[in-house]
Amino acid sequence: MKHENEYHDNMVAMLELIWGRGYMAPGGPGNVAKMLDGIETHGKRILDVGCGIGGPVFEMAHTFGAEVVGIDLELPLIERATAAAAAQGLSKQCTFQAVEAGPLLFPDESFDIVVSAGAITQIKDKAAVLSECCRILRPGGYLSCYDWLRTGAEYSDDMHYWFKMEGLTYALETLDGYRDHFANCGLVDIVTVDATDWYRAQASHEYELIKGVLYARMVELLGQSDADYFVENWRAMVIVIDKGEMRQGYCRGRRPI
């Protein structure tokens, strides 16, 4: 089935306004640092699954000295990332590819590290995509993910309303479920970190900003209607995070040597 693009220009502009230039998931450069903490990256080859418009890829090249390939289902995002790489003089160190859902078109053991931030959350068959990530890892290599998660309970009306406001495909997993997927792929030294408390405080701060000091800029960038829509979207998100229903976390594992 052909992928339908979900990240329209105004949504991307809003995410960059909140999370930083080039970023479509929370945390900015700090989130990249968390995913790569303690992993040797200099001169390594990294794949970013769901790279969006390239912010994390450029951070991994600039700060972590890596050669990075970014892949995404949405061609407009890849085109923007490719243009940004050229503008920053990073076209040799950072390359981008639009892909289709399914097996990754890379040979076995192609990368030293595979990362993904807030992208696998939108893929229903997590076992398949994580298995592919492990296949292309070199022995001793790391798979490190940040994702939006769920509890094991049925979704509330508040959660369904937030999904409606987001307008994105979501297939949330539990943090324990992530650990199980990593183990089933044969990864070892698996570590999970519940980051819900961090993003609970962050999301509340973002909400105060967008209905306050950032609101006029949002209207200028997005128009009144979309600015108001995103304020309501963030309000709905804060509710499900405060309830502990929508969660965030990290999962990391290593392919055995």
Number of continuous helical runs: 10
Shape: globular
Q: What's the level 1 CATH class of the domain at 21-159 and 169-196 and 246-254?
A: Alpha Beta
Mean pLDDT: 95
CATH architecture classification of the domain at 21-159 and 169-196 and 246-254: 3-Layer(aba) Sandwich
The largest sheet is: 7 strands, mixed
In the CATH hierarchy, the third-tier topology of the domain at 21-159 and 169-196 and 246-254 is known as Rossmann fold
**Terminal residue distance:** 37 Å
What's the CATH superfamily of the domain at 21-159 and 169-196 and 246-254, by name?
Vaccinia Virus protein VP39
Number of strands: 7
What is the H/E order? HHEHEHEEHEHHEHHHE
Structural class: alpha/beta
Regions with little confidence, pLDDT below 50 for 5+ residues: none
Strand content: 15-25%
Main sheet: strand order = 3-2-1-4-5-7-6
What value does the Rg take, in angstroms?
A: 18 Å
Portion of residues within helices: 40-55%
